[in-house]
Design brief:
By secondary structure, the protein is α+β, with helices and mostly antiparallel strands. The chain is built from 9 helices and 11 strands. The chain has a single domain (8-250), classed as 3-Layer(aba) Sandwich (Aminopeptidase), CATH 3.40.630.30. Helix 2 packs across helix 9 and helix 6 (162-178) crosses helix 9. The longest helix is centred in the C-terminal third of the chain and has 22 residues, at 230-251.
């Protein structure tokens, strides 16, 4: 029997963006997660995420300082994480998102300065931490944008599609909450080779812009930057809803071209 937490759809308020599309999308995504035997909830206690990361270190690399409250100012109004949990209430998957607002700088400036990773980067720079990148291809990423990361699925719940479901929900929720322009993350080359970025959305992966990170939490490791615009995120959400509607109509004995998902479900609130 499932542990009772506040339902995901009860936690979401639609603020920005097309309410009808987003309402349908969240319903479809929540149902898809339940079909895989998990429920979802939004959380803001990043100490809990760090503790979860430590507990599952055998299957999860160390947490980035971007989501470590000991290194970053993770305010309740600028960061959240999404938890999938099983019938016992145990976490089986996570994804986190953090809002940045750069009216006068770009993602390149913020990464190079280490301000993305630390509230106070000075001691880390003095200790030799650094990031090397030629960022011409992503200099347009600025203003209100969201970094997504801390994607983890417990080994016994892998291959159930959770890596495609959770990041999409995080991006859509971040957008409707904060009216973001871009969504981005880092991806290691081997992860990109496995197709993980494209499985979770229409990302541009800057393979011609290799990044070398020298950070204390992981040491030296190569990466790429992957990103999408909010317009692309909404198109992807529309595709998810359309595919679900198409598959649902095929399962019906007499499909109806006028049949659609309800725009809202009880508990899903909408505010202009």
């Amino acid at each position: 029997m499932f542990i009772r937490h506040r339902r995901l759809l009860d936690q979401i308020t639609l603020l920005h963006g097309p309410h009808d599309l987003l309402g349908r999308f969240f319903l479809v995504a929540d149902t898809a997660a339940r079909d895989q035997g998990v429920k979802l909830r939004l959380r803001a206690d990043f100490d809990g995420l760090v503790e979860l990361n430590h507990r599952h270190r055998a299957s999860w690399t160390p947490m980035s300082p971007i989501f470590d409250p000991g290194q970053s100012n993770l305010r309740i109004d600028s960061a959240f994480w999404l938890e999938a949990y099983d019938a016992n209430g145990d976490a089986v998957a996570t994804h986190a998102a953090r809002l940045f607002d750069w009216p006068r700088t770009t993602v390149v400036d913020e990464i190079r300065s280490l301000r993305v990773f630390y509230d106070d980067p000075a001691p880390h720079i003095a200790a030799g931490e650094s990031v090397e990148l030629d960022g011409a291809a992503v200099a347009h990423i600025k203003r209100r944008n969201v970094y997504g990361g801390a994607l983890w699925v417990r080994p016994d719940y892998r291959l159930r599609g959770l890596t495609t479901i959770l990041p999409r929900i995080s991006r859509a929720y971040a957008f409707t909450r904060w009216a973001t322009d871009f969504h981005w993350s880092f991806v290691e080359p081997k992860t990109h080779t496995f197709g993980v970025p494209h499985a979770s959305g229409p990302f541009h992966v800057e393979e011609n812009m290799p990044i070398t990170l020298r950070l204390a939490f992981r040491g030296l490791f190569p990466s790429y930057l992957m990103w999408m615009s909010s317009e692309e995120m909404l198109e992807d959400a529309a595709d998810v809803v359309l595919q679900h509607t198409f598959e649902s109509s095929r399962r019906m004995e007499m499909p109806s071209a006028n049949r659609s998902l309800p725009a809202r479900r009880q508990g899903m609130r909408s505010r202009s």
